[in-house]
Amino acid sequence: MLKRIYIDNFRCLVNFELDFDSINLFLGGNGSGKSTVFEALRRLQLFIIGGYPIAGVFSYFECTRWQNLSIQRFELEVDGNHGNYKYELAIAHDQNKSHIHYERLWFDQQPLLKYEAGEVEIFNDNYSPSPKYPFNFSQSVLSLLQPSQDNTKLTWFKYRIERLVIVQITPVLMNNNSKQEEKILSHKMENFVSWYRYISQDQGKVYELMSVLQNVLEGFSNFIIEKFSEQDRTLKLKFKSRDDTEKAIEYYFGELSDGQKVLLALYTLLYGTQSEDYTLCIDEPENFLALPEIQPWLIQLYDFCSEQKMQALLISHHPELINYLLASPIGYWFERQSNAPVRVKKISDKNSENTGLPISELIARGWLHESA
């Protein structure tokens, strides 16, 4: 489970630190830094597992504007594999050129990777070091490491970073066709069909997902992956008629409404990742949906997180989602003044005890912290 993030000198985040629980709700006005946390996580994931050069992921122009610092720093802590991982990354920007100042990985405070001053030192599972060797300082060392019997702890960390799903569902951008299976979902879920092809290798999960969707999408029967061309595959959905007297109709994924696409995506995220040690980071999952549509999904998400089947970080402005989730102390209020760093305060339903008003109403009236 993702336990902590530290971000310094990235956009509006300065000396920013946040601890996480199994389910977490980010609240605050527009421009207060909520989505920036997701963006930092997404870029760290791209850097660690994608093999992208540092300049293509973290730009000098995304350093905090009201400062004049050339170093960006990031830290991630992850619990798992019977211990605690701590990842550290510092990026130096010099005359619009960027390079890695250092990259380190620790497991229970023991070193697994050290990269500093252009030299790499890798430690095996019993923490014995390899000889130091020079390295190109534009890429993550982790992105290039191959699994072996001696580096299972390093390999596990990369595996866990792959299981960060960081999305803002944008139905109009979701492609109908797929050329290949893809393990990582893109930010706007453009490659949803390719990702579905990857997770559908587990037929048990697909069966459970289809059973749930039959109660969510009226008339839904099942999915069909159809060959569209020599290279492309497309996703189709089969819908039955109401009285079973008419022939079932097949719809291409692209023919669904925006709301249907979002529902399909949300339930696929839940049932495609449960019990697989994923962290779902979803920016405003309620978009395009009515309250009766989002509420059952929210209840199921809460149950899965409570059962430790997944972890969730959500950004929302939806009153129902706010009031339901804040029955537990998992809320974070983001606030920021112009040209000032983000500040975060933890909130829960205790904030409403003095007034008897739900959290969403306190937020709407601007009374949230007056009630504390």
SSE order and pairing:
Layout: E1 2-8, E2 16-19, E3 23-28, H1 34-50, E4 71-80, E5 83-94, E6 97-107, E7 110-116, E8 119-122, E9 133-134, H2 141-144, H3 152-162, E10 164-167, E11 177-178, H4 192-199, H5 203-213, E12 220-227, E13 233-239, E14 249-252, H6 258-273, E15 279-283, H7 291-306, E16 311-315, H8 319-325, E17 331-335, E18 343-347, H9 359-365
Parallel strand pairs: 3-16, 3-17, 10-15, 15-16
Antiparallel strand pairs: 1-2, 1-4, 4-5, 5-6, 6-7, 7-8, 8-9, 11-13, 12-13, 13-14, 17-18
Helix pairs in contact: 5-6, 6-7
Features:
18 strands, alpha+beta, eight-stranded antiparallel β-sheet, six-stranded mixed β-sheet
Task: Walk me through the structure.
The structure is a single chain. The chain is an alpha+beta fold and 372 residues long. It has nine helices and 18 strands. The chain has helices at residues 34-50, 141-144, 152-162, 192-199, 203-213, 258-273, 291-306, 319-325, 359-365; strands at 2-8, 16-19, 23-28, 71-80, 83-94, 97-107, 110-116, 119-122, 133-134, 164-167, 177-178, 220-227, 233-239, 249-252, 279-283, 311-315, 331-335, 343-347. The strands form three sheets. The protein has an eight-stranded antiparallel β-sheet with strand order 2-1-4-5-6-7-8-9, covered by helices on one side. Helix 5 crosses helix 6 and helix 6 (258-273) runs parallel beside helix 7 (291-306). The radius of gyration is 22 Å and the shape is globular.
